[in-house]
Amino acid sequence: MHKTALTAEEEAYQFIQQQIRLGRFAPGSRLVPETIAGQIGTSRMPVRGALRRLASEGLVEIRANRGAVVRGLNRQEMLEVFEMRSVLEGLAMRNAVSQMAPEHIRRLAGMLDLMEQDYLDWTTAHREFHEYLCGFCNQPRLLGQIAELHSVVEPYMRLWSAQPGRGRRARASHQELIEALKTGEPAQCEAAMRQHVLNTVPVLLDSLT
């Protein structure tokens, strides 16, 4: 069964995005359509379409003299992304809390326990925690914007997560989100999430200098 152009482009998009998120395609590295097409068993055209899509999302930059390269973030851009995340995820948590039952909050506590297990990919587990929490807002457009911002900074989060002592700091900050959810107060939840996201900025920027 032959792949349609649409499914082939989507497959290429998913593959390239994952490689960037996992840090396997590092910032500044060239993305050669022929090479990627060979890796996933498709033609160049779907890969080119996927690269244009990723460029529109800020993960890839298409340059006249070099073709497509993985786009890195400077300090100002990093700050901007986290400021946007703080506002959007704060809104998502504000709207999510009224839809959450005690068992959902208990599941978040369990996810927090799992984030400390060495056999798990911490960065992926961290993203799943945030996605599960924010998902209760039931606002697909908002969640789509948040997902794009997570993808942009995920390679840098992976570098930060490898630092000694990260787990203890991360657990305490995520526990504060759970405590805010237990109050059931939308404004308190929004404020807690905003502060949670912004608190990451100084330590993340320090780890990249």
Automatic annotation (TrEMBL):
InterPro entries: GntR_C, TF_FadR/GntR_C, Tscrpt_reg_HTH_GntR, WH-like_DNA-bd_sf, WH_DNA-bd_sf. SMART domains: FCD, HTH_GNTR. GO terms for molecular function: DNA binding; DNA-binding transcription factor activity. Residues 6-73 form the HTH gntR-type domain. The keyword Transcription applies. Keywords: DNA-binding, Transcription, Transcription regulation. This is Carbon starvation induced regulator. It comes from Bordetella pseudohinzii. The lineage of its organism: Bacteria, Pseudomonadati, Pseudomonadota, Betaproteobacteria, Burkholderiales. The gene is csiR_1.
